[in-house]
Amino acid sequence: MEMAAKSGALTVFIQPQVNAADGSVSSGEALSRWYGEDGRLMLPGEFVPELEKSGDIAALDMAVIGLAANLLAKRRGMKNVRLSVNVSPAGGLSAADIRRKVEVAGAEPEQLCIELTESPAADERELCRLASGLKACGFSVSVDDFGAGYSSFLRMATIDADEVKLDRAFARGLCDERARRAAAFAAASARGLGLRVVAEGVETPEQEEFFRAAGCTRLQGFFYGRPMEAEEFFSLL
């Protein structure tokens, strides 16, 4: 995996996140991409499931963290930006592992937000332990895809996180009144716990207006930009 990252076969594209208050870009999510031997760019859905089956997902997470940290290290002294990186708690990485990787690259933990992706394989106690360890190391912690799958309001209350990311299904369901109420309730519940709220999957002005009114801190989706090469992302700052 490290060789793939060094050769450029494994890379990251960044999807912008905008501040809900003023529409400015100051953060983004680093998403893995893989160039096949034929030069075709592969999305995570094509290679992540195989890595999960083989037990190599932690190696992918660590390589992507390193790539994101390298990008941030190159921007020392320039406009501040924060990148989010997905980490699977089921992979067995420790907060110390992640901190060392970031510091070796020359970046600071405060520049990264670790998005914990939930799965049935993630042990509840390990998830809480990892989140607390990351916070102690200086990272921001986000609970990804909140409101769907294995997420729960109880888990949101017990994990030492800074923010939650509403599952993109909320954005898709806003045409239904009950779904709108559920989305507003999820955002209000997170804010009631003192957490920042990020809305994913925003694709229309109507969705943007709804999530702003719901009190979301940041917004992410095709309405603001698709995942793009790092150079293009940094030009937006």
In short:
The chain is 42% helix and 22% strand.
Strand tally: 9
Give the overall average pLDDT. Answer: 91
Q: Which regions have little confidence, pLDDT < 50, spanning 5+ residues?
A: none
Tally the helices. 10
User: Level of helix content?
Assistant: 40-55%
Largest sheet: 8 strands, mixed, barrel
Kindly estimate the percentage of residues that lie in beta strands according to DSSP: 15-25%
Radius of gyration: 17 Å
Kindly name the structural category: alpha/beta
Broad shape: globular
End-to-end distance, in Å?
A: 30 Å
Description:
- Helices cover 42% and strands 22% of the residues.
- The chain contains 10 helices and 9 strands.
- α4 links the parallel β4 (82-87) and β5.
- α3 runs parallel beside α4 and α4 (95-105) runs parallel beside α5 (124-137).
